[in-house]
Amino acid sequence: SDVGCDRSKNLADICGEKNFQAFVCDALSVPIRSGSCDACISIAVIHHFSTAERRLAAICELARLLRPGGTALIYVWAMEQEYKNQKSKYLKEKNNSKDKEEEINIGRGQRPLSDQMPDSSSQDSACSDGLLNDLNDEGCAAKLVADSRLPVHTNRTSFHSQDLLVPWHLKGGTKKKGESIDTVLCPAGSKESQELSPVFHRYYHVFCEGELEAACRSLDCVRVQKSYHDQGNWCVVLEKL
């Protein structure tokens, strides 16, 4: 039988309401017996882990669940949103110029990265203009570490950093008698997000070409069957040996 899992209890509850089996768990520690799955699917999950070690651990956990000969499909967001002269659906859906997208100011007033994210060692973290002007000051290295920021992405545009925060609006449906509220996130600046609040910043590590495949190939227990780009995502199909 098929079973799904997610870190979000609300999403797991929605699956239950639709008569699907789902439970809440951590993708790095799935409470399922090793070697018991014919196939696993991980869609838009691994790019939320903040270090290469945790991303590899998530792939290892998928491999652990598979029986020998079992297969897994992994999708992660790609740095290359335009690939082989083709723009991804994500870029194509950018609003008309008259509907200016929301841009988030990431100046000095924002909370330190250590207050927002589990890992503050990103090599791609951005600094405020004031810090960049202080590059020649004594003790700048310590100042850069203390005040480092992750860049906040402008939705429906190309990526300029692999490690970033993407603004999302919380969208809640109207609750009717006997029904639960389906709460979802939609990209800030999208049509669905207009006049909605608040905005949440979600961490993403967008993968460069070959990065996901290389991580999978570093594991002795799996074989990469296929690696490809699909609508702004890097995808791998792997087989348990």
From TrEMBL:
<protein>
    <recommendedName>
        <fullName>Methyltransferase type 11 domain-containing protein</fullName>
    </recommendedName>
</protein>
<dbReference type="GO" id="GO:0005634">
    <property type="term" value="C:nucleus"/>
</dbReference>
<keyword id="KW-0489">Methyltransferase</keyword>
<dbReference type="GO" id="GO:0005737">
    <property type="term" value="C:cytoplasm"/>
</dbReference>
<feature type="domain" description="Methyltransferase type 11">
    <location>
        <begin position="3"/>
        <end position="74"/>
    </location>
</feature>
<feature type="region of interest" description="Disordered">
    <location>
        <begin position="89"/>
        <end position="128"/>
    </location>
</feature>
<dbReference type="InterPro" id="IPR029063">
    <property type="entry name" value="SAM-dependent_MTases_sf"/>
</dbReference>
<dbReference type="GO" id="GO:0030488">
    <property type="term" value="P:tRNA methylation"/>
</dbReference>
<dbReference type="Pfam" id="PF08241">
    <property type="entry name" value="Methyltransf_11"/>
</dbReference>
<keyword id="KW-0808">Transferase</keyword>
<dbReference type="GO" id="GO:0000049">
    <property type="term" value="F:tRNA binding"/>
</dbReference>
<dbReference type="InterPro" id="IPR051422">
    <property type="entry name" value="AlkB_tRNA_MeTrf/Diox"/>
</dbReference>
<feature type="compositionally biased region" description="Low complexity">
    <location>
        <begin position="114"/>
        <end position="125"/>
    </location>
</feature>
<dbReference type="InterPro" id="IPR013216">
    <property type="entry name" value="Methyltransf_11"/>
</dbReference>
<dbReference type="GO" id="GO:0008757">
    <property type="term" value="F:S-adenosylmethionine-dependent methyltransferase activity"/>
</dbReference>
<dbReference type="GO" id="GO:0002098">
    <property type="term" value="P:tRNA wobble uridine modification"/>
</dbReference>
<dbReference type="GO" id="GO:0106335">
    <property type="term" value="F:tRNA (5-carboxymethyluridine(34)-5-O)-methyltransferase activity"/>
</dbReference>
<feature type="compositionally biased region" description="Basic and acidic residues">
    <location>
        <begin position="89"/>
        <end position="105"/>
    </location>
</feature>
